[in-house]
Batch of 3 targets.
Target 1
Amino acid sequence: MSGNPDDVEPAVGALRYERRQMLPKTTMCNDKLHQFLQALPKCEHHVHIEGTISPELFFRLASKNGITLPSDDPAFDSPAALHARYQNFTSLDDFLHYYFIGFSALINASDFEALTYDYLALAYSQNVYHAEIFFDPQAHISRNVPYHTIIAGMNAAKARAAVELPKLSVEFIPCLLRHLPVPSAHELLEELLASGHFFDGTLVGFGMSSTELGKHPSLYKSVYDAAKAAGVGNFTAHYGEEGPSDYVKDALSLLNVSRIDHGRRSAEDVDLIAQLAESATMLTLCPLSNVVLKGVDRMQDIPIREFLDANVRFSINSDDPAYFGGYIQENYCAIQEAFGLAVEDWEKIARGAIAGSWCSLLRKEQLLSEVDSVLQEWN
Ligand code: ADE
Ligand code: ZN
C-alpha cells in the first residue's frame, strides 16, 4: 500500500456530477424562501470528509487502488445496491459499519485531495463560505495510510480552493474514534502534536466521533486534558446524537469543549438548554443525518424551535452527505419545509454560526458582511 505524500495529482472534478445524481428529488424545497436560503452565505462545521464518498466514487477508487470489496454483503454488488442499502440504516452503528468500509478505498494523497476539493467545490456552489472539515486519522493510520498522506492531500485541496473558490475559508479538525481503545486516541494525539499542525494553522481544533452509547465523556478526559495541556485551543465532541442529554452536560464539564456536535438530545433537559444558551455553546445540528439514522422519526421532531426560542446557538450541517441524501443546502431546505422559519430566524442562525466558527475576528467580520448583503436584498 503506498502512502507517498508527494503523490498529489490534480483533483478529479467529475465527481460533482456523480454526487448531484444521487441527490433526492427534494433538492429544491417549494418554500418561498428557497432562493433566499440558496443565496444565504453558510458556515459548515460538521462534515466528515470520509462521509462524502459516494458509492460510485467508492467503487471507482477501490478499482483504481486494487481494493477487494466485501464479498459477503450483497450491498457491495454494485453502486446501485449500495445506494439502496443506504436507504435503510437502522442506527448510528449500522451506518458506521458501511462508513468505515468506505475508508478502505482511500490510499493516496491524490485520493484525499480529490475527495476534499470536490466537497469544497460542491459546498461552494451552495454558498458555503467557511468550512470546518472533520477527518478520522486513526482509521487510516491503522490501514497503513500515514497521517502525512491524508493531510498532504487535504492541504493540496485547500490550496487549490484558495485560488479557485476565493470566498471560501477552510479548516481541518481531526476526530478521535470512540470505538477504538483510549490508548489509541493518546497515540493519535501524540502524533498530531509532534506534527506541529495544531500550532501552524493546519488543524484548527480537536474532536471526537464514532459510536456513542456507552462512551461516556469521562473515558476521554485524559486525552482532552493532555491536548489542552499541550496548548490545543479548540475542542468539540459528538454527543447527544443517540446518547442522553447527560452525556452533553458531562462533556461540557469534563472536556473543555466550546461546541457540541449534534447535541440534539440536549433539548430533553431544560437546565441544559439554559446552560448552552448562557455559555453560547454552539450545537452543530445535522437534520438529514438524524432522520436517516432514526434518531428521530420525522424532521419535525428535531427541536429547532425550542433551540431558537431559548437562544441556543446552532448551525445546520450535512454530516455525511454521500450517505444521507443531501449536502448543506438540502439540510437547510429540509428544515425550512418542516418548520417554515422566518427570515429573522435564518438571520439568527447565520449570525450564530459565524460567531461560533473557529476563525479570526477579521474573517468573522467578512462573513457577517456577506450575510448582511444578502439580508438587505430580502428585508
Ligand atoms: N462519524 C461520521 N458520522 C458520524 C455520526 N453521525 N456520528 C458519530 N460519528 C460519526
Ligand atoms: Zn458527525
Target 2
Amino acid sequence: MEQIAKSNPRSKPKSKPVSKHRHKIALVGGGNIGGLLAQIACQKNMGDIVIFDINAKLAQGKALDIACSEPVENFNADLQGGSEPSMLNGADVVIVTAGLPRKPGMSRDDLVESNAKIVSSIAKHIAEQAPQAFVICITNPLDVMVGHLQRQANLEPQKIVGMAGVLDSARFRRFLADEIGVSTKDVSAFVLGGHGDTMLPLARYSSVAGIPLPEIVRMGWISQKKIDEIVERTRKGGAEVVNLMGTSAYFAPASAAIAMAQAYLKDQKRILPCAAYCQGQYGVDKLYLGVPALIGASGVEKIVEINLTDEEKILFHKSVEAVKNLNEILEKLISQNKV
Ligand code: TXD
C-alpha cells in the first residue's frame, strides 16, 4: 500500500499552487474587515482567498469557518489562513487591513506611528510575493498609510490605491437618500480629499436620478441646511460608528473595498473616489489623496479632474494640507527610526 507521507504538523504550510482558473485574493489582516472581505469575496465568487494575519490561528479559524459555509452559500473557492508570507505568492489582488482600529475618542491620526510600523512590516512581504498585484490599502490613517505602503513595497503607483472615498461617498449617499426619501441606488455622490474631518463631500457634483442636488433643493425635496448637516455627518461618519460600536466600522468598509477589487479584476472602468497617487492633478504632486479615479485592469487608469469653485478649492486645499501635515509627522517618525 502506498505509504501515506506523515505530514510533520510543524512543517511550514505550503503555499497552494495559484489556481490557473481562479483569481487569488490575499487579505493582509484578518480582523473585523479582513474576515468580512473574505466572506464577501467568496459569496461573489471572486476567486481563491488567503487570509494572512500575524495571529495565524485567527486567520486559520476564519478561513475554515468561511470554507464551511461553501456548501450552503454555493460559492467555489479555496481558502487558506495563516501567517506565512509565502501564502501571498502570486496574488492578483492584495487588500491590506493590518493595523489597529480606532477606539472612542481617538482620531485616525493617532494611529500613525503604530500602523506605519505594521505597514512597513507587511510591505516587504507584498514586494517579495505579489509585486504585480493590485493593492488596496484600508489601514488608517488611510491617505498616509497608502503612500507609506507604496514606497516601502516599491509598487507602481497606479497599482496601489487607498479605500476611503467609496465608503465616505456611500455614507453620503445613504444619508441623502434617507432625507430625500429615495433609493440609495438613485443617489450618486462625490467625496474629494483626505479621509478625515477635512474630507469634501461635494453636493454640487451629487445627483438624484441624474438631477443635480442643487436642482433637488430648488425643487424643494431637501433644504440646503439639511444638505450642510448631512455633509457634516458624512465627515464624522467614522467617529459616529466608533462611538456606537467601540471600534471602527467594518461592514461598509469591506463592501467598499470589494467594489474596488471587482473594478480591477473585471476591468470595469469604474470611476470611483479612491486615494490615488496625484502627479500634478488638482495642483497636487507626489501625494496620495482622495480623487475620482478610473479603475480597470491596469489599476488606476486615469485620475478625473473636475472643476472646483473658489470655495471648494479652499476646502480642498485644507484637506490637502491636512494630508501633507500627517505625511510630515510620518517622515519625522521615520527620521527618528521610530517606524
Ligand atoms: O475607510 C477606511 N479606510 C477605514 C479604515 C474604515 C474602517 C477601518 N479603518 C482601518 O482599517 C482601521 O482604523 C484599522 O487601521 C484597519 C483595520 O480595521 P479592523 O477593524 O479590521 O481592525 P482589526 O479587527 O483590529 O484587524 C486588524 C488585523 C488584526 O487581526 C491583527 O492581528 C492584524 O490586523 N495585524 C497584522 N496582520 C499581519 N501583519 C501584521 N504585522 C499585523 N499587525 C496586526
Target 3
Amino acid sequence: MSEPLHPGAHLRVIPARPPLLQVDGVSLEYRTPGRVVRATHRVNFDVHGADRFVLLGPSGCGKSTLLKAVAGFVPPAEGEIRLEGRRVDAPGPDCIVVFQEFDQLPPWKTVKQNVMFPLRHARGMGRAEATDVAMHYLDKVGLAPFAEAYPHTLSGGMKQRVAIARALAMRPKVLLMDEPFAALDALTRRRMQEELLALWEDAAFTLLFVTHSIEEALVVGSRILLLSPHPGRVRAELNSHAFNLASQGGAEFQAAAQRIHRMLFEAPVEAENIGERAVHA
Ligand code: ADP
Ligand code: MG
C-alpha cells in the first residue's frame, strides 16, 4: 500500500486499462519451398481505444503482412497478437480491413447490398435492421443517393467510400486500413483523408492505418510507428497529434517530415542479415 498524497486525501484506484490491441514481439514469415522470407522481426506496439495508429515504412517492410496478422489471416512465427487481452488466431468481425484495391466490392451486388452483406452474415442482422444500418453509414460517407448503383459505375474514391462504410457499419473494435487512398489521384486522396478524420471525430473508432507516405502518416495519425526496411523492425514510435491537413506544408510539418525521413532511411543498417534464410530440412 502506498502512502496517501496528503493527510485525508481520498484516493480512488482506477485500474489501468490494458491496451485494446497488443502486438507483442511479432515476427512474420513467408515459407516457400527451400526458403523462408522474414517480413517483420519482433515488432512491438500497443494500440489504445480511439487511437489513430499509423504503421509507416518503405515498400516491402511488412506493413501489409502485419495488418493481415492483426486481422487474423497470418499466424505469427513468433510473438503474439492480443485483442482485449485475447490471442488473435482467426479472422473475425472485430477487425475489418479496408484494402487499397478498388475491386474489394463484389461487382454483382449493389452498393447497399455490399454494405449489408457482412451485417447479415457476420453480425446476424435481419434484413430490415441491416438495411437501416447500411443506409446510415452510406449517408455518413455521402453515398446514400448511390445505394442502388453497382460498383463499376462508381469512381475509385466512391468505391473506397463504400468499403469504408461497409467496414464502419460492422462497428469493428479496430478498423484496419492498408494504404486505402494510395491508388487515388492527389486531390481525391486529400479529400478522403479529410473525410476519414471527420468520420473519426464523429464515430471515434480505433484506427490502424498503413501507409508509405510520411505526409499521410502525419495527417492521419495520432501515433506513428516507424518500421525499418525489409524485414520490418520498429525504428521509433512518435506522437503526431499536432498535425492535420491544415498544418500540411507549414514549417513545423516539413521539419517533422524531414526528421521522420532521416529516422526511416538514415539509421545505421543492421549488420545482421535476417531477411532471408535457407531452410535446412
Ligand atoms: P509492405 O506492405 O510493407 O510493402 P508486405 O507485407 O507486402 O510489405 O511484404 C513484406 C515482405 O514479405 C516483402 O519482402 C515481400 O516480398 C514478402 N512477401 C509478401 N507476400 C509474400 C508472399 N505471398 N510470399 C513470399 N513473400 C512475400
Ligand atoms: Mg503493402
